[in-house]
Q: What sequence folds into this?
């Protein structure tokens, strides 16, 4: 009986592997892969709604792609990039600083857990609600302005959302607040993965904390820094909720805060399927390149050591999971 | 001597920056609570650091507002987020188990494929997705917001890593010898072992779905089916100034409080989860 079972083993169990992964792949196929193909298909068609009349679908080849480049698309791409940079640069600087402080045993930081809990908190807040909150707080008659005017700091209320810098600055600030805690915790794990003997050796050789940070910590966590940057870029490419709610979907002033996904959203809402399709394909290509870099970092042989970093992270995760 | 002074100075600098950042993180929420407890007229008059007395009045007004069915919104959000969390954790754990415990021809390609789509934005197939669900007559329902969570690559990755560290295959073998069927082994032996991982990932998918705005805003058209983010975003309209601001603040508070409460209880596990998962967009 037992023998029979073990003989059947290879045949029978192989089937179960497929059974177990079937729902995932079926769901992905139906709700992501087919829609993706459909999206690509529509990008080659003239297909939009003008009033109540539906025009198309007529096959027009690459015309949507070319037409799209002539619109404000490059401007929106630049906006998205600028908004990402405004949020990302302070985020990575502060996170690096905080992570190296948190890990440094010589600094006696009190209430570490409390600080970690607090700085991660904004990451869980609904971006739409957070943005709405900022909109009300910083509106022309809002609390911030009423405070500034009452205290005599400014004579007139500052119209934050009427200036390019104000709007972009607020979006950057929100993105910074929402993500620096998350990045800090990720980088902490990375720094803790560096062998402590390296820090000790550097200290014995007379390195000061600044030298240790730039000469040891930074080069050793470079792969994870790169990983953080690429994943953040993918997140930045998807920027939508915060600028959409803050500017009411307009991206004003003068559409300087209109992001790529906001533009896609406009096309989808107005049922301009051809253009939405072409824009989606552009977005797909960019994110596919970024995803591929992430994939390379996590899996395959990597000359710059990203693979080792990913492994190290995994090992660390394992260690923590074991407790 | 000099060195201790130096690290002493750095400790102080670290605390100053940490307190400042924590203040920044918490201050906005404090103002939100203060403003949610004040009437529209009080809010018009100016800013105050002290809470008012109209918290419950504002809450009642929001709940009874016929134009913005907040209570319905909370229920819809709970259904969508709860459903997504349940489906994504169960089926992604199942997928991870399938790729972890069995050997089959397509095992490696399947794994590589999921790793490739791990950080792929969902927005790029939104157009096809909308047309698909319209074709299935599922537009303006909550179903397309729940069912696709079956395929959650980041949950899969987390579960797979977790299994590698804490699910010995000998256990599965033992169950087999005892005559347990494959599904039974998964449901009654593997799932309990995965409990900590499931808890963490359930929270993350719940939060992600609760906060999701892009897809629901495109799928839902009827007011009574709206989720909270859509309602919040609809406050930001042209006649914004005519709104009762006390109610606006209260609604924002309602949208974020459930998550904050859960977080305060489970923060330790959540923060550990961030480190473990490694791949949250």
A:
């Amino acid at each position: 009986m037992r023998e029979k079972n073990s003989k059947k083993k290879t045949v029978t169990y192989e089937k179960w592997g497929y059974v177990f992964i079937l729902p995932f792949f079926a769901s992905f196929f139906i709700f992501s892969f087919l829609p993706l193909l459909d999206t690509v298909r529509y990008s080659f068609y003239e297909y939009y709604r003008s009033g109540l009349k539906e025009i198309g679908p007529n096959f027009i080849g690459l015309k949507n792609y070319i037409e799209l480049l002539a619109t404000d698309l490059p401007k929106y791409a630049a906006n998205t990039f600028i908004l990402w940079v405004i949020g990302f640069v302070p985020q990575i600087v502060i996170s690096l600083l905080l992570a190296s402080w948190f890990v440094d045993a010589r600094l006696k930081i009190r209430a570490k857990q409390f600080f970690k809990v607090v700085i991660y908190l904004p990451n869980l807040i609904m971006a739409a609600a957070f943005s709405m909150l900022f909109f009300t707080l910083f509106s022309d008659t809002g609390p911030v302005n009423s405070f500034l005017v009452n205290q005599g700091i400014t004579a007139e209320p500052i119209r934050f959302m009427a200036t390019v810098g104000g709007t972009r600055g607020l979006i950057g600030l929100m993105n910074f607040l929402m993500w620096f805690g998350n990045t800090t915790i990720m980088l902490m794990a990375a720094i803790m993965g560096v062998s402590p003997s390296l820090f000790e050796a550097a200290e014995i050789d007379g390195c000061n904390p600044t030298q240790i940070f730039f000469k040891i910590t930074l080069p050793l966590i470079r792969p994870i820094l790169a990983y953080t940057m690429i994943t953040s870029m993918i997140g930045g490419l998807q920027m939508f909720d915060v600028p959409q709610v803050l500017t009411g979907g307009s991206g004003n002033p003068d559409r300087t805060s209109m992001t790529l996904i906001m533009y896609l959203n406009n096309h989808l809402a107005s049922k301009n399927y051809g253009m939405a399709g072409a824009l989606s394909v552009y977005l797909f290509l960019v994110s596919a390149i970024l995803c591929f870099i992430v994939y390379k970092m996590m899996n395959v042989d990597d000359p710059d050591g990203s693979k080792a970093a990913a492994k190290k992270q995994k090992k660390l995760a394992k260690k923590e999971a074991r407790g | 001597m000099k060195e201790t002074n130096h690290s002493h100075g750095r400790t102080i600098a670290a605390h100053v920056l940490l307190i400042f950042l924590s203040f920044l993180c918490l201050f906005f929420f404090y103002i939100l609570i203060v403003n949610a407890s004040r009437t529209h007229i009080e809010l018009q008059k100016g800013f105050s650091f002290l809470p008012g007395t109209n918290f419950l009045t504002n809450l009642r007004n929001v709940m009874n507002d016929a134009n913005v069915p907040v209570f319905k919104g909370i229920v819809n959000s709970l259904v969508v987020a709860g459903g997504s969390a349940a489906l994504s954790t169960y089926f992604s754990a199942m997928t991870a188990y399938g790729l972890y415990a069995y050997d089959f021809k397509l095992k490696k390609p399947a794994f590589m494929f999921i790793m490739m789509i791990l950080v792929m934005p969902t927005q790029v197939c939104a157009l096809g997705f909308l047309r698909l669900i319209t074709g299935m007559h599922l537009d303006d329902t909550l179903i397309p917001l729940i069912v696709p969570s079956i395929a959650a690559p980041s949950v899969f990755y987390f579960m797979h890593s977790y299994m590698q560290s804490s699910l010995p295959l000998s256990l599965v073998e033992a169950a087999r010898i005892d005559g347990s069927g494959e599904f039974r082994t998964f449901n009654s032996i593997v799932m309990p072992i995965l409990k900590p991982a499931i808890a963490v990932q359930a929270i993350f998918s719940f939060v992600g779905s609760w906060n999701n705005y892009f897809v629901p805003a495109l799928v839902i058209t009827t007011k009574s089916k709206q989720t909270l983010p859509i309602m919040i975003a609809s406050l930001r309209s042209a006649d914004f100034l005519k709104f009762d601001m006390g109610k606006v603040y209260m609604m924002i508070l309602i949208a974020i409080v459930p998550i904050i409460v859960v977080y305060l209880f489970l923060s330790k596990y959540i923060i550990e989860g961030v480190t473990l998962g490694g791949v949250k967009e």
Summary: Chain A touches chain B through 113 residues (CB under 8 Å).
